[in-house]
Amino acid sequence: IHLLPTLFAEIDAHSPGTKLSFSEWNYGGGDDISGAIAPADVLGIFGEQGVFAATFFPLHGAEPFNHAGLRVYRNFDGAGGSFGATSVRASTSDVARVSVYASDDPIVVVAINKTSSPIMAGLTIAAPETTHLRAFVLDGSGAAIHAADGFDAVDTNAFAVTLPASSIVVLAP
Fold this sequence. Notes:
Blueprint: H1 3-14, E1 21-25, H2 34-49, E2 53-56, H3 64-71, E3 86-88, E4 90-92, E5 98-104, E6 108-113, E7 119-125, E8 132-138, E9 146-155, E10 158-163, E11 167-172
Parallel strand pairs: 1-2
Antiparallel strand pairs: 3-5, 4-7, 5-6, 6-11, 7-10, 8-9, 8-11, 9-10
Helix pairs in contact: 2-3
């Protein structure tokens, strides 16, 4: 399904300049890591594709993993660390199992392991040269994002990263 390209084509044809947004969405799973992975992945897609806004709609008060999935883009380090306003190209060596999104200014990479097994993946980002990235991990052990060992570049802006099972790893200088 090419939903976003189709919607953007319709906007361009019938109402150029109109911005696309999604409101009152929630994929459920607020008490499970899947409830963090789904919104983190869709927010990455929305940003990558140029969606103007996306408004999460909580179904009930206790949705810790849903909120953690949003925090990977806003305050992932507990000190205001945030995904930048400009998306840049990012790629992974394992497209089928790993999603990756990146921003410039600041450089932030969000890598999502959508499987129940750990994965070693190569990540490449199109951003100013970066040689070391700190890591922050959200996994099924709880809804808190915690600091982890960082990664050194194996080539210009290329990193070999181990992603825990069903996890989101945020990388930042």
